[in-house]
Amino acid sequence: MRRLTRLGAAADTKGAPYLFIAPFFLLFGVFGLFPLLYTAWVSLHDWSLIGGNEGFAGLDNYARLLSDEKFWNALVNTLGIFAVAVVPQLMLALLLADTLNRAIRGRSLFRMALIIPYVTSIAAMAIVFSTLFGTEFGLINQLLGTVGIEPVNWRGGRFSSWAAIAVMIDWRWIGYNTLIYLAAMQAVPRDLYEAAALDGASRVRQFFQITIPMLRPTILFTVIVSTIGQMQLFTEPAVFDTGGAMQGGTQGQFQTVMMLVFQEAFRYGDYGYGAAISWVLFWIIVVLGAVNALLARTIKGAP
Predict the structure, then answer these.
(1) Distance CA 254, CA 204 (A)
(2) For residues 181 and 225, what is the distance between their CA atoms, to the nearest angstrom?
(3) pLDDT tens-digit profile of 49-64?
């Protein structure tokens, strides 16, 4: 009896962790791994919306992708918006978090306000930013006119549309990243700042020599998550595209890769080609994530 009790206790000790994590892996397998593998299978076939599987195509969809100007244009747009949006976003989030980590009046109210853009509905965001970036009656163009600057066709140019979409992205996600950085700053020992202040270090020097090094793992996390999110960018440019055809402007000047996937699969009904684009995007994200991790390891190991 005692032996059975010991075996039961040992099984409970060794098996309980697997039972606790099993729900996640079951859900991931059903809603994550299976769709991923099924998309790979679809990408190897001629697969249409009406006819379904129309035969094995091998790597034809991938060969078509390599010579498709629309794909390369969408990839350039995605990387361009990523560069314009993410770098200022994370820098501003760090500065905001550092400010809210100090003893200022009403900081609890400001901390609560940071999450408002994140929970705001997409419909409300579309209405507000359509008004702000309107070509003829947009508020931003009216403000530019007061200082003698000609109105900007925000949807007509590549860089102007990138800038407008970057503003939408940053408005929505700066607060989210700020709260992540703020939570990490709460774990930094206050003794470090007090000792640095006694040594005569300014707040700027404390920020660069204490805060940034202590937040390096958190910064790496936000960089990787932002990279994954921005490479799958869809909502903001889709909202910005008033035509609704996922064209990304008249010349595709702000069409992202995910908009192209949606257009090919759901507008043109070419699921095989859309799946191939999705899989190429997946591997691009994997490579960018590995580069980020490698750079972080290099910086961490630097003297």
Answers:
(1) 37
(2) 13
(3) 777 777 888 888 899 9
